[in-house]
Amino acid sequence: MKNLSNKEANKVTRECLQTALIQLMSQKPFEKITITELVRRSGVSRTAFYRNYESKEEILNEVCRSFIDSLSASFSDPTFQKDPVLWYRCFFQDIWDHAMLFGLLLEAHMLNTSAFTSSYSLVKKDHDGEPASLYRYLAWEDAFSTIVVRWFQGGRKESIDFMAEFCSQVLVF
Question: With contact defined as beta carbons under 8 Å apart, do 93 and 164 qualify?
Fold first, then answer.
C-alpha cells in the first residue's frame, strides 16, 4: 500500500473492512461482531478503521447501499423498461447470484422492508408529482419487496423465470 495514493489506500482499506464484515456476518450475528474482530480479520489498523468509518453500522450501511445500487442500476435502462419480464428476470438472477450477501443483509434487518427497493430512480423520474402516481409507485415498491423477500426466505423454490413472469403480470407499474 506504500505506492498507493491516499484515495486509493482508503478505497482498499474500505474494501478490506467490508469484506471482513461480510465474512464475520456469515459466522455470527452482526450485533456480536466487535471492532477488534473486524480490524483483525481485515488486516487494517484500528486507526485506519476510524479514519474511514465511525462504526461497524456505517460499514454495513455502505455494503447495503452498494448492493442496492447494483440491483437498481438497470431500472432506468430503456431496454428493461420496454421488457419488464427481462428486468425482473435479471433482478431475480442478481438476488440468486448474491444469495449469501442478500441473506446476510436480511439477517441484519437491512432489507426486511421496502428499503432495498426505495433507491430506484423510478420514483424520481416517473412520478410526476401527482399523488396517484406516487401511491402507485409505493404500492408497487412494497409489493415487490415483500415478494422478493418471501421468495428468498422460502428457499427460492420458484424458478427465476416463474418469478419474472409472475411479477410482470401482477406488478404492473
Answer: no
d(CA 33, CA 24) in angstroms, rounded, equals: 7
In angstroms, the Cα distances linking 160 to 71, 73, 93, 151 are 15, 19, 7, 10
* Nearest Cα to Cα of residue 58 among 92, 87, 21: 21
Read off the pLDDT of residues 32-49 as tens digits, 9 standing for 90 and up: 999 999 999 999 999 999
Write out 3-60 in H/E/C secondary structure. Answer: CCCHHHHHHHHHHHHHHHHHHHHCCCCHHHCCHHHHHHHHCCCHHHHHHHCCCHHHHH
Q: Give the position of cell 478503521.
A: 49
Q: Rounded to whole angstroms, how far apart are CA atoms 38 and 23?
A: 9
Q: Could you read off the pLDDT of 57-83 as tens digits, one per residue?
A: 999 999 988 888 887 776 667 777 788
pTM to 2 decimal places: 0.79
Range 143-150 contact pairs with CB under 8 angstroms and sequence separation of 24 or more: 143/170, 143/171, 144/114, 144/117, 144/171, 145/111, 145/113, 145/114, 145/115, 145/116, 145/117, 146/114, 147/171, 148/91, 148/92, 148/95, 148/116, 148/117, 149/106, 149/111, 149/112
